[in-house]
Amino acid sequence: MGSSARSVRMRGTLLWFNESDDVGALRTDDGERLDVPGAAFPPDEKPVGRCAGTLVEFESINGVVTNVAFVPDTNPRRARMRHRR
């Protein structure tokens, strides 16, 4: 009796990550909210500090997140210029 579960590569956005509890959450591009264990990140690439809104790619098997990778921001936000009046 084998399992028919298969790994699916997805994209999403980190909502938060708690360094001391080693757990966080993300929202998939489909709007599903998933828990993210610290073990899902490569050893030296866990989020540090504010990470809300960070784009990630990950694998999901039956809602379990693994192999999280940060997506490079190809269009970084620029500071807004203030106009003098």
Major sheet: order of its strands?
A: 3-2-1-4-5
**How would you sum up the major sheet?**
5 strands, antiparallel
Low-confidence segments, given as residue ranges, are: none
Which fold name corresponds to the CATH topology?
OB fold (Dihydrolipoamide Acetyltransferase, E2P)
Protein architecture, described:
The protein is mostly beta strands. The protein has strands at residues 8-18, 23-28, 33-37, 55-61, 64-70. It has a single domain, classed as OB fold (Dihydrolipoamide Acetyltransferase, E2P) (Beta Barrel). The protein has no helices and 5 strands. It has a 5-stranded antiparallel β-sheet, with no helix packed on it. The model has no long low-confidence stretch (mean pLDDT 88).
Topology summary:
Elements: E1 8-18, E2 23-28, E3 33-37, E4 55-61, E5 64-70
Antiparallel strand pairs: 1-2, 1-4, 2-3, 4-5
